[in-house]
Amino acid sequence: MKHSIVPVALAVMLLAGACSPQSFTMNIEMRYPSKSGLDLAGKSIAVVCLGNGSAADSTFSEGLVQGFAERLEKEYFGGEQGVSTYKITGSGDDYSSRDSLVNLVVDSGDDVVFLFGTPEFGELGLGDNKRSTAVHSTPDSAYTCVTSLPFTVKLWAYDSMDKDDKVYSFTGSNAIKPEIFNDGTLTYPQAKEKVWSSVRPLAEKIGLLSCSRFLNTWKTESYSIIYYDNGNDAWIDGAVAASEYRWTDAMKEWMKLLNTKNMQKRSCAEYNLALGCFMMGQLDLALKWLDASDKDCPVSLSSELRKRILARKK
Questions:
Q1: How do strand 45-51 and strand 22-32 relate by DSSP bridges?
Q2: Is 285 exposed, middle or buried (0-12, 13-18, 19+ CB in 10 A)?
Q3: What is the pTM of this model?
Q4: Which residues contact 247 (CB under 8 A, 6 or more apart)?
């Protein structure tokens, strides 16, 4: 979840003290799996590129993997190095099966493996060879030609922790546009030779862009916290901690409220504990607390929370 949404002010909440249970609502941005269907949060990740031994293909593939891995690290590891990268040689068809990707998971030791196949390149297109506008251009770089190199690349992904136990397959096509500086006598064979010196940084940008479908998606949802303003500080301290997204602290306060013969109050505390567990990703424990709340004295908020917990478990 994201902490950028501010809940209802507790100062206002505390003015409504009563012997009956009260509640306040928090709008929270909740994380959901990426558009690809993969949920990568909390998992170790490896990105592998498949090559055929060609230096040109390797230059492109290594840049592609580097950009892809860096974007994953920014999203899931706070920008710290956390994604392993590898290069292997072989045929793309040999690595598109589940068994092959499982072997890569075993070899890498990571939970999730992304495998980029060997890129397929189209015919290099040349633009007009124009005089360079650079102020300090040398004679051998007095002219510039923007080229266009089409490519198609396949990507396979396997999540060893995904209950569906399947290989995800993706195919993308685009074109990079390397700029070639020359002395004005550029020929097509020369352009084909020179273009690879500019490929890697452009491939890194493609890697960054292609990662977008594997990033978290977010949805703003409303959740309610129950409290009593009856002189027991644990209710208010728990509510304050929850409003600041300190769920562990909030749950410690709510645990103090369970030793009571008042079934309604105990049920409300158990509901809050279920919500706290849900926010911390402890779905099975959240359901157990919600079951206890329903057994003691069902609260009206219970059914909606149960629906959300069960939806997360699918």
A1: unpaired
A2: middle
A3: 0.75
A4: 241, 276, 279, 280
